[in-house]
Fold this sequence. Notes:
Number of strands: 26
CATH superfamily of the largest domain: ANL, N-terminal domain
CATH topology of the largest domain: Rossmann fold
Distance between the termini: 54 Å
Radius of gyration: 22 Å
Largest sheet: 9 strands, mixed
Strand order of the largest sheet: 2-1-10-9-11-12-13-14-15
Strand content: 25-35%
Number of domains: 3
Structural class: alpha/beta
Amino acid sequence: MTGGAPAIVAGEESVPYAALEARVREATGKLRALGVAEGARVGLWAGNAIEWIVIALAVPRAGAVLVPLNTRLADAEIRWQAARAGLRLVIADDALASREIGARRLVSFPEWRALAPGDGEPVAGHDDPARDAAILFTSGTTGRPKGAVLTRGNQLASARASGAVLPLAPGDRWLASLPFFHVGGLGIVHRCLLAGACVALPDDFSAEALDRAIEDHGVTHLSVVDATLRRILGARGGRPLPHRVRAVVVGGGPVSPALLEACPQAMASYGLTESCAMATLVRPGASDAQRRTAGQALPGVELRIAADGVIELRGPMVMRGYLDDPEATAASLRDGWLRTGDLGEIDGDGCLRVLSRRDDLIISGGENVYPAEIEHALREHPAVADAVVVGVPDEQWGEAPLAFVELRAPGEPDLRAFLAPRLARYKIPRIAFVDAIPRLANGKPDRAALKSARR
């Protein structure tokens, strides 16, 4: 802890490190008053807020395991996760606390604030690297989501590896531009607190609110997906990001070349819930060719491509396994190597190129078609705000690409003609114009919803 330096800023409120320590100690005592014992799993179901961070830091001090819950899920989905994680206690913000999700006890934020704390002393060994620290459910785009069990050692290794490439110090401010229940959002908290830097909270995740927070909070770093960065730059009306912004870490998929050109601070990364956020990152000062990749492995991460083209990685930030699922754990973790399910290649500089999720790969007439390649080409059209490509059944070719396209203004430009000189004929998709592309809570496109819409 670094005393009077700000640990969190949100709106007009600033929480110095000394005050954060006091609030976490009080929250630890409240968890004890609620009967939280060592090894218990505590659900935290709320939007990004100072209180979220305080409770999340208190849970391991009480000897418990944090289970962040997605605020956008339906009741049935949350009930399933609460049962799967064996949650006896869920702490929820005011907007969610009235919903019945099957936990033995659901405490609203107002109830939480009114609680008299018990003993706030942390349990012995709460910071032990071998200790389970959090269970984060995967996005579940195919089948039921799985609970990735992350240890304290995973979290520390991830934060340190990031800091070795993007050093943080007191005075730096990382925008919490991803939800904390997502591994990328939670990673921001751990990186900042390990380095004595500050977490900056926007009012919400709209492009205007994110841009306002960048300006008002003196942000130096932010984490986004491709679509979010494009929206922020659009909200700025062509103005570049402030010079003090040193790094814009872009995850969730390949970054379009046009976006890299528009934002010199953008650096692509690659990671998963199972790797405790990013495992690769483009280095500051990288060449143009390197910036068009997902970067090199972070310190401590080993990277390889398996015989079937799947990206595999190994390192101290890789999860312990999946919650109560030895079969899925054995299938994904082999001799410490995590099979990501994504297809990629490693170039001569050691940079990773992510070609596609294995489940997203389109095989049309025997040819591999990578959605990201088509999406990047579509985004080069001035009328296209965003595009997502999925594979759909085709009688002649077995499968064919279909592009869902969101436009900047009404109209239906001839995008197939635009793509003709840019892509091989078998890659040119059918086009479906949509008002807005559905997205998951982490900002990634909801490909499963788009595929279902075409059935």
